[in-house]
């Protein structure tokens, strides 16, 4: 942790610290002025690009507006999904269509890294700082394409943990060459469930993965490669923390990721805005449950949840442990921003 991160966070109010723990989704139809004002007034961490952005002028207008604000001298992060294949939200002229992870795994790791580096540099030139990639999860060979979140959409590197780790490391190296923040996902893996957590509440329980599972080797290799962020899955893990979604589980984030793996980077949630898996929890409290359990940056596809999330996060700071946890979460966000010249 850069000592400056702690110093910056100390100067922020509880509400501003909470704002730095919220990243909102934006779609092409959103008003750039509205989004910029939301970031500025709420001291938000930044945005992630949703949907398919196909107009370069439209994208550039959004990025200009977002990058024109810097609440408390802190610039916003701009993130996007850019795994390749079906999962590529930035499709404007000048940005290559990236092969799917399944296709990348048919190349040599060096070739895959080179392809990713080229695409990542194109994103960086636009003013994008963070990519929600790679998908490090290992696909259960017994499921194959019945694994809808990854295998059905060609999002995985395969069924071998070390091979998945090797290609995840190649993607991360490609991002690092371009100055892009990698977000390894979806810890501790969604390759052993059948349904997609964005759309279903049934079929999203992993009944196999254990705390020290060999399938986790792919994530360990990704972290060793220097992934600056890790996204937590919104699935259930009955052999780790029964009945608790991964992104609300202190066993997953604090005990496993921080403890067993010794990971000190940024912990990001999967979507807390429109994912069906979290609908049983009040919108604002999805963020506070995530941060209280050990997470740092709550992402929501619904910008309208920013206010409720900030209020819920601020409320945890009324206790001494909650105040410390919120400050620590905000410090992790600021630490990444310092590393990428998004604050001074």
From TrEMBL:
Pfam families: Glyco_hydro_3 (PF00933)
Record-annotated Glycoside hydrolase family 3 N-terminal domain positions: 31-335
Gene3D superfamilies: Glycoside hydrolase, family 3, N-terminal domain
Catalytic activity: Hydrolysis of terminal non-reducing N-acetyl-D-hexosamine residues in N-acetyl-beta-D-hexosaminides
UniProt keywords, alphabetically: Glycosidase, Hydrolase
EC number annotated for this UniProt entry: 3.2.1.52
InterPro entries, A to Z: GH, Glyco_hydro_3_AS, Glyco_hydro_3_N, Glyco_hydro_3_N_sf, NagZ_Beta-hexosaminidase
Main EC class the enzyme belongs to: hydrolase
Lineage: superkingdom: Bacteria
Family (UniProt): Belongs to the glycosyl hydrolase 3 family.
Protein name: beta-N-acetylhexosaminidase
Lineage, uppermost ranks: Bacteria, Bacillati, Actinomycetota, Actinomycetes, Propionibacteriales
């Amino acid at each position: 942790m850069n000592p400056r991160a702690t110093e910056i966070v100390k100067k922020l109010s509880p509400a501003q610290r909470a704002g730095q723990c919220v990243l909102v989704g934006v779609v092409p139809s959103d008003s750039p002025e509205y989004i910029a004002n939301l970031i500025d007034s709420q001291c938000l961490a930044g945005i992630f690009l949703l949907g398919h952005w196909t107009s370069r002028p439209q994208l550039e207008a959004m990025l200009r507006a977002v990058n024109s604000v810097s609440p408390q001298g802190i610039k916003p992060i701009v993130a996007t999904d850019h795994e390749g294949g079906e999962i590529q939200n930035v499709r404007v002229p000048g940005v290559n269509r990236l092969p799917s992870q399944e296709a990348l795994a048919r190349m040599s790791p060096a070739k895959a890294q080179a392809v990713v580096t080229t695409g990542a540099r194109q994103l960086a030139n636009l003013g994008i700082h963070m990519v929600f990639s790679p998908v490090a999860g290992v696909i259960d060979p017994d499921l194959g394409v019945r694994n809808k979140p990854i295998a059905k959409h060609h999002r995985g590197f395969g069924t071998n943990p070390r091979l998945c780790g090797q290609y995840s490391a190649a993607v991360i190296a490609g991002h690092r060459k371009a100055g892009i923040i990698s977000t390894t996902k979806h810890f501790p893996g969604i390759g052993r469930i059948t349904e997609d957590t964005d759309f279903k509440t049934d079929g999203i329980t992993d009944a196999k993965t254990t705390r020290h599972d060999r399938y986790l080797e792919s994530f360990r290799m990704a972290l060793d490669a220097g992934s600056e962020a890790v996204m937590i899955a919104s699935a259930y893990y009955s052999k780790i923390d029964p009945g608790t979604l991964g992104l609300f589980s202190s066993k997953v984030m604090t005990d496993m990721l921080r403890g067993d793996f010794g990971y000190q980077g940024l912990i990001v949630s999967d979507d807390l805005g429109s994912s069906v898996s979290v609908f049983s929890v009040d919108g604002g409290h999805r963020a506070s449950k995530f941060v209280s359990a050990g997470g740092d940056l709550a992402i929501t596809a619904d910008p309208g949840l920013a206010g409720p999330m900030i209020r819920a996060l601020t409320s945890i700071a009324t206790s001494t442990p909650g105040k410390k946890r919120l400050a620590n979460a905000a410090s992790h966000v600021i630490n990444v921003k310092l590393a990428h010249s998004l604050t001074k």
